[in-house]
Amino acid sequence: MGNSITINGVRIEVQGSANHISIRNGNVTIGGNVVKTGLSGEVRVVWDGPLASLDCDGSAETGPVSGNVSAGNGVKVSGDVSGNVSAGNGVTCQKVGGNIMAGGSVKVG
User: Fold this and answer.
1) Cβ atoms within 10 Å, residue 42
2) pLDDT for 24 beyond 60
3) How is the chain split into domains, by residue range?
4) Does the pLDDT of residue 38 top 90, yes or no?
5) What does the pLDDT read at residue 96?
6) How would you list the strands of the sheet with 60-62, edge to edge?
7) Residue 88 phi, psi dihedral angles, 5° rounding
8) What does the alpha-carbon distance between residue 64 and residue 52 come to, in Å, rounded to a whole number?
């Protein structure tokens, strides 16, 4: 079963699950495989499917995450995070199974 990721409006089919998505320095990597390079400015990524963990330079907005979320800016999760959340700014989510480190406000529940 494939999942899909939409990067700045362009949909890309991805085989397998997302054991880790990284958006760093203009590159999008899924499970260790680079799927997009050369991005600049605000990068809008939408993942369709189960998400294990996310690591990004900017803000993160996602559904439930079964692992950790790390973002250079704010984090907004419409659901639970099983692991840790680390954000340079505020965090909004439902339940968190691990720790929260935030440079701004935290709203849980």
Assistant:
1) 8
2) yes
3) 2-108
4) yes
5) 97
6) 60-62, 75-77, 91-93, 106-108
7) -75, -15
8) 9
Put residue 8 in one of left, alpha, beta given phi > 0 → left and psi -120 to 50 → alpha. Answer: left
Is residue 54 within 8 A of residue 21, CB to CB? The reply is yes
Q: How far apart are CA 27 and CA 24, in angstroms?
A: 5
DSSP result, 2-16: EEEEEETTEEEEEES
**Count of CB atoms situated within 10 Å of the CB of 9:** 7
pLDDT tens, 72-93?
Answer: 999 999 999 999 999 999 999 9
- Residue written as token pair 């330079």: 57
Task: Of 37, 32, 35, give the one whose Cα is nearest residue 47.
Answer: 35
